[in-house]
Amino acid sequence: MAELLEKVRMHFLVVVNLLSGLQETEVFDVVISRSKEWVTYNAKVSMTNPYFTPILISDVSFTLRTANRVIVSGSMEKRAEPLPGSEDTVLEVPIRVAHNQLMTLLEDIGGARDKIYQLDLAVTVDLLLYNGRRIPLAWEGEIKMPL
After folding, report:
1. Collapsed DSSP state (helix, strand, coil) of residue 41
2. Buried/exposed 44-58: b ≥16 CB within 10 Å, e otherwise
3. What is the DSSP letter of 24?
4. What DSSP character marks residue 146?
5. What residues does the Water stress and hypersensitive response domain cover (predicted)?
6. Cβ-based neighbours of 101, under 8 Å, separated by 6 or more
7. Which of 12-26, 29-43, 66-80, 106-120 has the lowest mean pLDDT?
8. CATH of the domain at 37
9. Count of structural domains, the chain
10. What does R_g of the chain's alpha carbons equal in angstroms?
11. In DSSP terms, which residues pair with 91 in a beta bridge?
């Protein structure tokens, strides 16, 4: 009986994944801001909630790298409000890097200040009957090293 229930659950999850508009999630911009101590990379993520009910985001983890070196990795604080039902939402993921960390990286890799950055994000959402669905995202682009 347990095997049958598991097969039904897995079939239901396949159908949910096929119909899910969450696959339309993408990183569409990365904006840099600076303060005295930090450089903040604000990743803007466009998310579509295809369901009529709100969806909770339980985790957003990130890794920012350049020249095959990890600059910073971590996760964002839990989002307080859920994604509204049947709407497009822009989720901002702030990624803070200390100035001295960027200076050390620039000295180590050398070269020009124009660097190719790669940002890997994983947004984890909680769907009905399927908690912890991870949506992997990747963004790559050239940005001047903000020093």
Report:
1. strand
2. ebebbbebeeebebe
3. G
4. -
5. 25-142
6. 71, 72
7. 12-26
8. 2.60.40.1820
9. 1
10. 18
11. 45
Contact 79, 110 (CB under 8 A): no
pLDDT for 19: 46
| 128 in Cβ contact with 72 (< 8 Å) | no
**Amino acid identity at 99:** H
pLDDT digits (tens, 9 = 90+) for 51-80: 788 888 888 999 988 878 888 899 987 777
Q: What are the CA-CA distances from residue 120 to residues 5, 30, 64, 68, 101 (Å)?
A: 35, 12, 7, 13, 19
- Which domain covers residue 19, as residue numbers? 2-144
pLDDT tens string 73-117: 999 877 778 888 888 888 889 988 888 887 777 777 665 556 778
60: nearest Cα among 45, 43, 75, 80: 75
Contact assessment for residue 28 and residue 45, using Cβ atoms and an 8 Å cutoff? yes
How high is the pLDDT of residue 105? 74
